[in-house]
Amino acid sequence: MKKTLTLLTFMFVSWQSMAFTPESGLYWNSSEPGSGYNFEIQDNFFFGVFYVYDEFGNPYWYTTSGFMDGNSYFEGPIYISEDGPCLACRWQQNSTYETNLGTVKIDFLTETHANMTLLGETIALERFNFFLGDELQKMRGEWQVVYDVSDYSNNYPFYGDVLIFEQTETFNGDYLATGCRSESTAYNRCTNYALNNNDLAASFDFHNNELIAVVRDDADYYLAYYLKTGTNQFDGEAFSYRVGSSPNLNLEGFRVRGFRSASKHFVDTGTGPSKSNSEPTAKLGLASMIDNDRVKNAPTSTLDKSTQDRILATIQRLEKQLK
Asked: 305-316, pLDDT tens digit by residue?
């Protein structure tokens, strides 16, 4: 096997204290096109397939499998399979045995990034993006969101939301994803009411690998999000704050997780109400359900001063789009 592994280091300091779920899928290193690594994670069981080549350039595939250590780390032996059937040929049993290549270590850094170490070298991997576009374009679609407000509410500890990232656009020189809080899961696009009352704008910081979004929660409050994003999920913090003020990033926000529930294609072409002209009664936002006095006593934030300043500057730009 060619030793073309390159030592690369990813720094995701801002996210070290935040939980995430590694994603199954096809991973690669962009500086080594032609090779791939397929990772399948079921519960805490990991199975990996390496699509690589031998010293003569012939394609080989290796496998590894076993249970993960914690949420995001795997270490296991490397196996090779040979003497199986050719494509569309009569089936014959292959032979699989452990190689003398040692163990492989895979350490996930985010949902879609990992460091893989074997044969004394480390390679930085990321989930391959076949079709979704850049980090903002891949957000397009419908997302189901869960808020953990257990520390800030006397009522039910969890609340849900439906956010639609409908399009990408440039506003005042800023590249944004825009959309709305949906009125209903039956509305796969943003209605006029949603755009006028619960619109959203999001910006991705490509240097710091963070998505920042602002949603008009209701007439009096905004919701700001500080997120790390995968292909079909995101994790992070949300901050509720009054219109005309700024979120207090010196305190922790409440935890939030989102899951893609409809594709960009569905939002673009799906049937159902769109741009409705009906004007329903104004709805209260999440801010009305949480105890703001308890929010003021939240734990101290883990975000450093430079990160807070960067987030606040982005939030202020996003608010201008909503206005």
From this structure: 888 888 888 888
Q: Where are the domains of the chain?
A: 13-127, 137-322
Q: Of 276, 273, 258, 262, which is closest to residue 202 (Cα–Cα)?
A: 258
Contact 171, 209 (CB under 8 A): no
Residue 243 clears pLDDT 60, i.e. is over it: yes
Q: Distance between CA 28 and CA 30 in Å, rounded?
A: 6
> Quick check: pTM over 0.85?
no
Domain 137-322 superfamily per CATH: Quinohemoprotein amine dehydrogenase alpha subunit, domain 2 (2.40.128.120)
Q: Is the pLDDT of residue 162 over 50?
A: yes
For 308, residues 6+ apart whose C-beta sits below 8 A from its C-beta are 249, 250, 301
175-212 residue pLDDT tens: 999 999 988 777 677 888 888 889 999 999 988 888 99
Cα–Cα dist 124/108, whole Å: 10
Q: CB neighbours (10 Å) of residue 118?
A: 20
Torsions phi, psi of 274, nearest 5? Answer: -150, 135
